[in-house]
């Protein structure tokens, strides 16, 4: 089975992501989930367009389409104009809109890399596979796809599964936040997990977001500045606690993330001994991401306590990142084999001049 040559030549992708576009612009052109079906149909109704799939996540907005226009540049220009009009971008934002413009082989290759987690902020992340699958499902149910995009996306999912099964690119944590989640999952059922932030630094915010995104039940924030605690707790849909009260609530949580600017230990063995007695020695995970450290290392010797400082977390993350990077060539080989097998074999290049363009 091969794709007709016309399919390859008339396939385009227009996109922007975390590399090309700051979040304040990405959020202006992000399609709300409920509006994606409308966007699929609007693109199909553009002059010369036939099929379309719209992928919109926090890190990227991409439009895949087939067309019958004279050249890919005209198709890309039409899609850019659609974005500007659809989101009513002011002139200065429209002029600053940086997109990547891909066609033919390069568009297919890009989709295969996206589905495989090779184009993600965290190399090898798995969430994007489901997001692409959902985007395709919406387009399919809306009537936005036909023979060309159906085959392309089905092959993309085949590639993504092969990358996942035949390599270790998606194994091992590559960020402090993801390490925190992995550790918490080994100790607790995240759906019942309660988290306390002692201090409200950016790293503790990242760890907490990772835990909450994977099902942590609730979060308590305590900070010397109570207003700052309220602000972060509101963002996390949690509860703020005054700084002189947090010790009294430790026995109620399962994960403690500490990131104060104190010059001395704020969490000591005597305190945690009392906490563990109240918890009846139910496991407690403590993540100390403060420098200087907030937690006395002796705390780790207490039964049921699992203590990790920033160096330990970073070492785990670095090893996961190195292992994933070692797998990159194997992943790229799988993608190239599928491109050749299914008809996308013409070389493509990328040039940069305000927009990223595949020619």
UniProtKB/TrEMBL annotation:
Task: Please state the pathway this protein functions in, per its UniProt record.
Answer: Porphyrin-containing compound metabolism; protoporphyrin-IX biosynthesis; 5-aminolevulinate from L-glutamyl-tRNA(Glu): step 1/2
Q: Name one GO molecular function term.
A: NADP binding
Q: Which residues form the active site?
A: 58
> Which residues of the sequence carry a binding annotation for NADP(+)?
199-204
Assembly notes: Homodimer.
Q: What family does this chain come from, according to its entry?
A: Belongs to the glutamyl-tRNA reductase family.
Protein name stated in the entry = Glutamyl-tRNA reductase
Species annotation: Prosthecobacter debontii
Q: What is the lineage of its organism?
A: Bacteria, Pseudomonadati, Verrucomicrobiota, Verrucomicrobiia, Verrucomicrobiales
């Amino acid at each position: 089975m091969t794709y007709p040559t016309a399919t390859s030549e008339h396939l385009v992708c227009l996109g922007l992501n975390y590399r090309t576009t700051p979040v304040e612009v990405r959020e202006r052109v992000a399609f709300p989930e409920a509006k994606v079906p409308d966007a699929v149909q609007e693109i199909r109704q553009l002059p010369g367009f036939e099929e379309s799939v719209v992928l919109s996540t926090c890190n990227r907005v991409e439009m895949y389409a087939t067309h019958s226009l004279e050249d890919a540049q005209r198709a890309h220009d039409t899609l850019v104009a659609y974005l500007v009009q659809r989101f009513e971008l002011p002139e200065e934002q429209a002029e600053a809109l940086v997109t990547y413009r891909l066609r033919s082989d390069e568009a297919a290759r890009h989709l295969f890399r996206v589905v495989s987690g090779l184009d993600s902020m965290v190399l090898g992340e798995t969430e994007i596979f489901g997001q692409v699958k959902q985007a395709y499902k919406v387009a399919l149910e809306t009537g936005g796809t036909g023979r060309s995009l159906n085959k392309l996306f089905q092959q993309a999912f085949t590639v993504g599964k092969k990358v996942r099964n035949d390599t270790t690119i998606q194994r091992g944590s590559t960020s402090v936040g993801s390490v925190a989640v992995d550790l918490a999952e080994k100790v607790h059922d995240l759906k019942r997990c309660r988290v306390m932030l002692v201090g409200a630094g950016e790293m503790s915010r990242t760890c907490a977001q990772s835990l909450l995104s994977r099902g942590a039940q609730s979060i308590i924030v305590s900070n010397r500045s109570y207003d700052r605690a309220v602000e972060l707790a509101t963002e996390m849909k949690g509860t703020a606690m005054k700084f002189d009260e947090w010790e009294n609530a430790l026995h109620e949580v399962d994960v403690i993330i500490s990131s104060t600017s104190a010059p001395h230990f704020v969490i000591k063995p005597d305190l945690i001994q009392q906490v563990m007695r109240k918890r009846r020695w139910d496991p407690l995970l403590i993540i100390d991401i403060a420098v200087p450290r907030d937690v006395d290392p002796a705390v780790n010797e207490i039964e049921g306590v699992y203590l990790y400082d920033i160096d330990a977390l970073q070492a785990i993350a670095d090893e996961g990142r190195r292992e994933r990077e070692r797998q990159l060539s194997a992943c790229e080989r799988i993608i190239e084999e599928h491109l050749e097998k299914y008809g996308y074999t013409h070389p493509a290049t990328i040039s940069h001049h305000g927009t990223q363009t595949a020619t």
